[in-house]
Structure formats: structure tokens, C-alpha cells
Amino acid sequence: MSKISAPRSNREFIEACVKAGDAVRIKQEVDWENEAGAIVRRACELGAAAPFMEKIKDYPGFSYFGAPLSTYRRMAISLGMDPASSLPEIGKEYLARTNSEPIAPVVIDRKDAPCKENILMGADVDLCKLPVPLVHDGDGGRYVGTWHAVVTKHPVRGDVNWGMYRQMMFDSRTMSGAVFPFSDLGKQLSEYYLPRGISCPFATAIGLSPLAAMAACAPSPIPEPELVGMLSGEPARLVKCETNDLEVPADAEIIIEGEICPDYKVEEGPFGEYTGYRTSPRDFRVTFRVNCITYRNNATMTISNMGVPQDEGQLLRSFSLGLELEKLLRSQGIPVTGVYMHPRSTHHMMIVGVKPAYTGIAQQIAQLAFGSKLGPWFHMVMVVDDQTDIYNWDEVYHAFCTRCHPENGIHIYRNTTGTPLYPFATPHERKYSIGSKVLFDCLWPVDWDKTNDVPTLVSFKNVYPKDIQERVLSNWTAYGYPAVK
Amino acid sequence: MNQWEVFVMDMSELAEGKDIQISIRTLNPGMHKYTYKHVRAQVSSTLDKFPDQLQVRMGRGQLSPAKFSIKVIEEIRRLPPQYS
Asked: Which domain holds residue A276?
């Protein structure tokens, strides 16, 4: 693999985005209360450049970087690729890097760690000293963590987990967040800490390098510090926390250290969510008590504003869920041609292209997808054949509407794992995280005769002889049509 | 006069004429705006009955037209002492 030249920090990433025209510097003062959130939201909905807000009301010296990875261009920049790279090219690169040898992180001396430039301990700890934004009007609170990593470690096995669990500021030293029981942190808490009544050390890292954020967001089985190394082609730089033994990205802008309380919960939410709605009810949720805050000089807080498509939660989650499922299906020997989630599905529909080699292959795919650790994050799997371009929604939609038999092609799975975030779920289902799933099998049945039973696709590419196609293509402008890109 | 806000799923959570326990967040301007306290309080739909004002939001953040006055009797510390 050639040398990777990816941004190593949030600051390098911002510079690269500005240079490529994919970020704008906003010099005028921006209010942390709604205004910053509204700018980020509008940028997401327009697919516009990421806003780098350099002056925050009430918080001199701090800045915001919003919508860091809400376009494929910025995703390509984060990987050190040409911003104009296509989605299949980005996906191919992601798969190549994440199938490479793991690269272990290095732990550096604290004096060399930028995130230690300012340290608040004891009575000085106050989350309100950070420019925590009110992201959406009507949110249950100001959200500290919207684009970040919550770092934890299993005390016995030593498994390190970086996860993107939203965190609301409840008071100056308390945050609460949505940690679902099927998530890595949720399992860690329910398996070890909660039964023993022991608090779980955590560290929240904000303003990560884009690839560290990508790793925290990806549902990969590879430990995130190693995954960052694989994605960036060099070891991630970590540094030990001040008040616990966790190691955090040394170049992060802000680190919040503390403990997750096993016996104390405060209210969290509502919050504008990745589905494009405020769905999950306000509830007593996992509570984080803060013991220390460290941050860089002129720290930049990253903001993701979730809502209607498309934001980085949808884009990156769709991207990584799809590619991780592709890896899983290939590991089982299933002849997939690709897996794709359209971000506009708010990562609810998995589209799988497959060579229909045997009967039941679509059901096998759905069962693997829904039964994996990826499964709780989506509820629809659509399987199309290897002739359908999974990235072309027109083709996929056509296949769905014409090949999915209303009785034989739709398979429903009941009483599965759900989340309180599903907008369509009943109040009862939301309360108890009860889900249901559906497979849309858009494959022609294997027992249909390919000559006489399977309908012929009537398209330019499929029904005309090659020589006619070439003649029409070569004469297209001569006929009077503009050239087709 | 302080300004507070509360989230409720149902307006019956704001019973008048008796002490209730609720989590309220400050709307007073400043860096601590939107931080919460859990309190014992009395509320009234008569706006000048108690010294502070209380604004209400419903469970998904919708602002309610209902307004209340509120008297915060005491802050209740729910936090176990080991986390202080």
C-alpha cells in the first residue's frame, strides 16, 4: 500500500478542508445557543462546506467545527484521498486499509500531548467553561458529546472501546447519555460494572482527528486505537489520563475524564436524532460524573447536528455499517457484489448486491445481518442481484418495485432488538427496545427457468446488440444531443 | 426573579397546591444557562403567586403555552456522596 497522507488531527483536517473549499471560516461571533447549531444544520441540509466558527459568544479563545464528515468529499479528505473520489473508490480504500495488518498505538509523554495544555481539576471542574452548544432548540440540554469518542476499558479483559454515545450536560459536573444495552459500552456496563456496583472510568475525547472519529463511529470488531492506525497508516498517538488509567488521543482538542455511576441516573433528552426526529423519550439514562477536564489552547469543539439527511452520523454510519456487513458476508463465503446504505435512509436500509447462487441466499444474508452486532442499527435489508448497481437508487428502486413479490419476497422478523430511536415504533416498543425487521428479496427465484420464466430487462444496455450500442453512443452528439458525462 | 424550565410528559406532573419534586433547568442568561437542579417546589398557574417563572416543554421538546410561577423550596441532592 502506498504511503497514506491523512490529516493527523482535527486542526490539520480543518486546514485541508479549507484548502479544498470544503470548509468556510466564519469570523463573526456566533452564539452557542441555537445559532451555531442552526448553521451546522443548514450546512448539512444543503450539503455545504463545513462551518469553522472562530468566535463563540461568551467563550473567547474557543471555536467550533461543525458537520465535519457530512459529505463524501470530506470523508475522502479525511482519508488523505482526492476529494473528488467516488463512493466506491472510498469504500474500496476503507476495505483495503481495514483488512491490512493492525497498527498498535503509541503512548506519548504527557508533556508532548497537546490535549494537556490546560488542566481543570477539583473545584475548577465546570463543564460550563467549555462552549457546550444548545444544538437544537427544544433539546433537553446542551450537548457536550455529538462528535467525539467515549473511551472505556474492560477491567479484566482489557478491551478498549471508543464509542460515540451522545452526552448531555446535566450540571457543571454531570453528563447523561444514551447508551443502549446492545452497544459495546452497554454490554460492558451490564456484564461487569453494574452487577458489582463499581463505577466505570471513562474519558470523552472531543475534537478528534477525523479518522479517530471514523473509528469511534464504526461498528468494527477491531479495537479503535488499532483501527485508527490502520486507517491512517501510522500509530495513533495516545496519552494517559490525569485521573484514571485510560489512554486518550493526545491530539484531541478536549478531554473530559470521570466515572460512570452504577447507582445514579439523571434525566437525558430529548435530542434531535439521526433519524431526523426527536423520538426517544426523556428518560433516566447512563450518568457520567466529571472529575477532570483538559484541553488544548484555542480548543475547537466539534459539533454534529443530527436531523434530516444528511449529517455525518447518517453518512459515516451508513458507510461503515455497509462495509462491515460486506466483510462479514464475504467471511461467510457469500458471493456479494457490494453492500451499500444510502445515507438518506438514515442508516435503516441495507442494500446488498449478490450473485443469486442458491435458493434462500437473501434470507441467509438477512439473518446474518440482523443477527450480527450491526443488526440493531437497521431494520430493512434489500437484496438485489449482481446486475443491479447498488449505488444507483433508480436501479435499486426499480428492482424493488418489480422483482419483490408482495407475498413471497417480503419476510418479517418479529421481536428483535430495537432502539427507542425508531420513529415508527410504538410507545411500548420504544420503552422496551423491541424491534422488528424486514427483508425485501428482489432476486428472481432460482427455480425459475432463466430463458422462459425470468423476464428480460428492457434497457439500452441489455436489449441492443453491442454494435448498435456503440454506433448510437459514438453518434450521440451527431444526433444533436449534448455529450453525456 | 429567576426563570426556569421543566420537561414533562403530562401536565399532571405539575400538580398545584402541594410540594412536588422536579428537575428544572435555569434559563437565566450566562454560562450556566440550561444546567439542571433537582428540587422540591411548589408551582402555580397564577403567575404572580410565586417569585420565579416556570416555562414548560413537553417530552419531545415542544414548548407549551402553559406558564407557571414557581417557588423553589430546596435543592434535593440525589448524587450519592462518593461522587461529590
From this structure: 10-303
